[in-house]
Fold these 4 entries.
Entry 1:
Amino acid sequence: MTSIDFSGRNPGFDPTNFGLDQYDLFISYCRRNIAFVRRLHRALTVQHQTVWVDWNDIPPTTDWRTEIQRGIDRADNFIFVLTPESLASKVCLEELNHAISRGKRLIPIVQTDVTGDVPDAIAKLNWIFFRDGDDFDTALDRLLVALRSDLDYVRMHTRLLNRAKEWQLADRDGSFLLRGKQLQSAVRWLEQPMAPLSDPGPSGVYPGQPERGPTSPGVRAAQPFGGQNRDRC
């Protein structure tokens, strides 16, 4: 189950909006930390952020894999709630790997101090601390600054990624190629220098562009979502 709040949004006509559902962020978390995630979700929606978050277990069918991956693909940012439980969760790490493979902007937030190994992709980033002893509102302000940085660049990354997926699923049908103002916008985006915050560079294949691999530093191949039962821990 996902939760979406589009309050405050009135984009009007935008040649870079390719008619896709899109979210400001995806939250990856362990179920044991759900009380904190609910509080964070409420605070973000008050700030008119659109959030993809899984509140209930998705039935144990192949559909949950598609739903989770689609949620990550259509989110501009990937929030990883760092706790000992999330680092031990196979599902959370699979979500992280999928986000990495898609070149998503990763924003780690710490709800509980962690020890031991932390995946390289988030260990090297600046963490935002939401621990019990930290000021929640101050941490939220820092998170919002990160989410809103290089916004146009990151949103275009998400839109092009999903158009590319549709093109590939359609066996690269020419009718799915970008044209006119959409193609012009995509070309301008590809010519931009990488955004300085976390460099979500071009990933995969873009319709109308040559094939190219992930360019973000530290990108690793996504691991398959395994098993029949999805246990978020």
Note: The radius of gyration is 17 Å.
Entry 2:
Amino acid sequence: MARHVPLYRALLELLRATSTCTTLVPLLLPLSGDPGQDEEDEDEEHSEGQTSVGMLLAKMKTCVDTYTNRLRSKKDKGKGVVKTDTSDPEPEGLTLLVPDIQRTAEIVYAATTSLRQANQERKLVECSRKVSSRPKPLYVLRSVEEKYVAAMKKLQFDTFEMVSEDDDGKVMFKVNYHYMSQVKNASDTNSAARSRRLAQEARLDIMKVLITGPADTPYANGCFEFDVYFPQDYPNSPPLVNLETTGGHSVRFNPNLYNDGKVCLSILNTWHGRPEEKWNPQTSSFLQVLVSVQSLILVAEPYFNEPGYERSRGTPSGTQSSREYDGNIRQASVKWAMLEQMRNPSPCFKETDVQGKITIFQPAHPEQLHSKMSGNKRNGGEEEERSAERNERADWGERTRSNPITLKGLHDQNIYNRNTYK
């Protein structure tokens, strides 16, 4: 953002001008996807998570408010010295941009609020005249998954009190965190570029992420927890990412996910790759890291992620090895990324309701368990597998009976962030 200040200021000026024109203010609100639906239906749909210019601008204002508060807090505490670079043009640009964002957000909010109130008053008058009712349009009959996404979208990014400081400034963690030692040993001297970059990404330096496995993969419906830490030289170096869902360091879920939690990706500089695949301080972002984990690691055929195994893809031996590998991954996903997450959910993600995430897709899970068991029977031990299957189904039934289906779950990209705050 700081590298495109003139562009952002021009857009903000356009939004302020739009807010002063009554006929254009509706463009700042969510747009209807169905021309035939009435405004009452529109408001119902908007409340379930449609994006609008006004909402995005409000989020941007929250971001810059967090940014300015953090810098002010550092300044007031007087702990450490923030390094500055006189040759860096970003601070001057942000000095101009931040108040522009704050002022524009207030103007747009006032204009859209006034329009909403006028629309509500008009609808009350119209509703009083209506006598007959009409059936709901088809778009209201959304699938369970669509309702699931809408209900949880507001929890996609949130904060949790993972760390605090005592009167002496000593850092204390309230949850288990892989990079605890780095945080405690980190110098109070911070890079101004790092602070600005973190603020612009609406993140703090300590984070937990929950990613659910995509459908039609051995990881489907599993909830995988990652610890993330932004090192002192960020963004010159990539964030540190560690997988916490490892079955007590007993399971290697992927050739790129070690049982000690190491995540191998070119963008994290933990795996060799072409220069354009590695972390770039100017263009790379944390969102790219999250998308890479889901799209490059949690894939349908993880067996072929192993270097050299790609050559066996499509061959009888490669297909058989991949099936056996997938069977083991499915079993581990059910045990550690589903059942264990239900029994012992992370405190940071209790509000996302991991149990609700699983029970809403309850009809699919017994089939997933059966598929996993059937795949393993081909390798022998059928009686043992039948016994294991009965136990798994009994455990599953007991848990789902005590947890009714909810409309809570993860976002359509199945990624949830929890920042820390003090």
Note: Residues 33-48, 359-365, 396-413 have pLDDT under 50 and may be disordered.
Entry 3:
Amino acid sequence: MKTSIIASPTPTLRIHRDHLKRVRPIGTKWILKNKKDERGIVIRNKARLVAQGHTQEEGIDCDEVFAPVARTETIRLFLAYASFMGFTVYQMDMKSAFLYGTIDDEVYVMQPPGFQDPEYPARVYKVEKAMYGLHQAPRA
């Protein structure tokens, strides 16, 4: 859980508000994993909060479900051109790039299990940044 907090300095869920009747909140759940070394010994416990996106209905909660990806032909053309021109091409991977996208739609999720506010149990969170499990997340 510590890694997620460091990786996402901007909180994914920020606005704590009363449940809106026109919007159906999406449930959340914790995914717990153990990271093991080559001998099978647990070296780190990992946790991440995910939305139960399988409950979203297309046309009601979201419009389209897709992830924008460059076509293979485009990538090959770029690499061929870079090779022809003598350019150096670098590749990199961001560990948590998925969590930095901003959600355009109005999406609300329920309070995480085990972290409900006892004073306001009916309140929900408005999602501002991409969250694992949402249909809108790959497009963010």
Note: The helical segments are 2-7, 72-85.
Entry 4:
Amino acid sequence: MSIASALDLGQISKIVHVAKSNLSGKVLPTIIGSNVTVGHSAVLHGCTVEDEAFVGMGATLLDGVYVEKHAMVAAGALVRQNTRIPFGEVWGGNPAKFLRKLTEEEMAFISQSALNYSNLARVHAAENAKSFDEIEFEKVLRKKFARRDEEYDSMLGVVREIPPELILPDNVLPDKVPKTA
């Protein structure tokens, strides 16, 4: 099995197999390119998915399937053995068949999708790496700096402090530069 970078394998289970026993007697590796999005509960079995392709939730790709760059397999599709899904096409159904061509906007979405999920995974990893004490401290901060309506505060004569900004790890959001202490 070969997996490239910036791959989104969804949030729930997936099954990725290398086919060793089949009618042709060939060993079929599963090869997944860069910036690929694979939806929840998808099954990839002895197939190739090129860079910047999209496999929907619950889709099944059988032995010898080849998904080209910027191609999309719809959710729930069953792609039969040795099927090639060409560049820029959407395939769906059981068995999967050509549905339509992708728009330029959809191809741009596919290119960005895996990167978005990869960044989100980093945020989740940073949150899950926090200690119990850090979590409790953030709870206290949230409570202390909970916002109320400014008009309500002014009627009571309350002036609130400005809450501190929480700084995410610098690799989470590449477009934001973290503040230094």
Note: The radius of gyration is 23 Å.
